[in-house]
Amino acid sequence: MLRHMGAIDDSTLVVTSVHDKQLVDDIPTEKLKAHDVPVDVICTPTHIIHTNTTIPKPKGIYWELLSPEKLGQILVLRQLKKQIEEQTGTKLPTGPSEKLPPTAQRKPMRQSIVYERTGNEPCIFVWNLDISTTWRDLRDHASKEGAEVVRVNIFRKGNSRPMARILFKEGTEIENLVNALDKSELRGSMIRAKVNSVPTDGKS
């Protein structure tokens, strides 16, 4: 896609990172497909390898190799195909049908730490978290403001950035804590915070 858009060309370096044990030198070049991308530089924990490959890089999107099933999995390709066909008035080719291997089912991200609670703990809802944020990050971030965390529950909805509900020890000055946490920086992201109510059964 980048080649199609003119964002890269043959001179663009392709760099990858692997473990030393993943390196092999006996893959026959005839096994490579037109859409396979040769690597210029390989970085391992112990080496930086310049392959000096002469294998040609893909020239763009090979529509004739994309099966209807594969195209059905990649929304951006379907949109691009439709756009090109509308602009050119020409129907692009499609590859032969194939049976694709099953894809992994992603479970909603959910991280939590649970303590014994009374049911009266104040709660803060935070959002715009970096995807790498853990419950320990949030606990420690809140602890810097002198707050004692009772429970942290991190979750996501669809493709949105992670959000969390943080319960604090009963008696915590919640408004002051919200003011301190809102628009503060955590893992390079400016998080947002507000007071949040919690169901009396303790479910979040």
Quick overview:
This protein is α+β, with helices and mostly antiparallel strands and 204 residues long. The chain contains five helices and ten strands. The longest helix is centred in the middle third of the chain and has 14 residues, at 75-88.
**Can you give the mean pLDDT?**
84
Weakly predicted, low-confidence segments: 112-117, 198-204
N→C terminal distance: 41 Å
Shape: elongated
- Describe the biggest sheet? 5 strands, antiparallel
Defining traits:
204 residues, five-stranded antiparallel β-sheet, single chain, 5 helices, disordered C terminus, three-stranded mixed β-sheet, alpha+beta, 10 strands
Describe the protein in words.
With 204 residues, this protein is an alpha+beta fold. It is elongated, with a radius of gyration of 25 Å. Mean pLDDT is 84; it is low at 112-117 and 198-204. It is built from five helices and ten strands.
Secondary structure: elements and pairs:
Elements: H1 2-5, E1 15-17, E2 41-43, E3 48-50, H2 68-73, H3 75-88, E4 110-114, E5 123-127, H4 135-143, E6 149-155, E7 163-168, H5 174-181, E8 185-186, E9 189-190, E10 192-195
Parallel strand pairs: 1-2
Antiparallel strand pairs: 2-3, 4-6, 5-7, 5-10, 6-7, 8-9
